[in-house]
Design brief:
single chain; 235 residues; alpha/beta; D-Maltodextrin-Binding Protein, domain 2; 2 domains; 9-stranded mixed beta sheet; Transporter substrate-binding domain-containing protein; signal; Solute-binding_3/MltF_N
């Protein structure tokens, strides 16, 4: 009986031991400000997605937390393996990309009491709140460079500047803005205009031991099990 129990315990420990033998999945995360050692992931969504991908890949997990301006360099240099929730046109670089699976919507929010634009074309010449180091190709397809860019280090800080009246028009993802609404940080009477709805991807380093095919297979497994849908609701 004891021998059977020991055998069962040994077999149960094999997957964990096998994962420990592999190099970790170095999951790159954008952080606001200076990252510190052992700093936890900044969002529950990124936390759960990174952990789920690592588990499907049979690897331990290591977060690589960097400012937005350094995340692509980390992938290109082989200092990280995977970065998620981006598109090639937002973050160009010498990397591979998974299939699209993370929905993101970007909007322009107009301050209460300010006449909202009827279309994106009406934003020409306006001061727009944006995030430092981030590109807005879909917006620029419509208005080109005919706007004044007012950057903040992060989307939440850009929202704070907008609330404080630094500019009338804020360009931001709906997920981030809606969290501020739920927290009671947004005054009523704002207007929302959609810039785009898109499905984003994960960038995979070409210097990684993990291939884009393996990451796609992990995404497929999470989707098939229903876990991915639960993770996406955390955004």
């Amino acid at each position: 009986m004891l021998a059977h129990m020991l055998l069962a315990a040994t077999l149960a420990a094999l997957p964990a031991a096998h994962a420990a033998d592999k190099a970790p999945l170095r999951y790159v995360e954008k952080v606001d400000g200076m990252p510190s050692p052992n700093q936890p992931p900044k969002t529950e969504f990124q936390d759960k997605l990174g952990a789920a991908l690592a588990r499907q890949l049979g690897r331990p997990l290591q977060y690589v937390e960097l400012p937005r301006t350094r995340v692509m360099a980390a992938l290109e240099n082989g200092d990280g393996d995977v970065l998620c929730s981006y598109l090639p046109q937002w973050l160009p670089g010498d990397v591979d990309w998974t299939r699209a699976f993370i929905p993101i919507s970007e909007v322009v929010i107009t301050r209460p009491g300010v006449k909202p634009p009827a279309s994106l074309q009406e934003l020409r010449g306006k001061r727009l709140g944006m995030v430092l180091g981030f590109r807005y190709p879909e917006l620029e397809k419509v208005i080109g460079q005919d706007y004044i860019r007012d950057d903040a280090p992060s989307a939440p800080l850009s929202i704070r500047k907008w609330v404080a009246g630094r500019f009338d028009y804020l360009v931001t993802p709906t997920t981030i803005f809606n969290k501020q609404v739920e927290a009671g940080n947004i005054p009523p009477g704002y207007h929302m205009l959609t810039v785009y709805d898109v499905m984003t991807m994960c960038a995979v380093s070409r210097k990684s031991a993990i291939s884009v095919g393996e990451v796609n297979a992990a995404i497929h497994a999470l989707e098939k099990s229903g876990e991915l849908a639960k993770i996406l609701r955390l955004r």
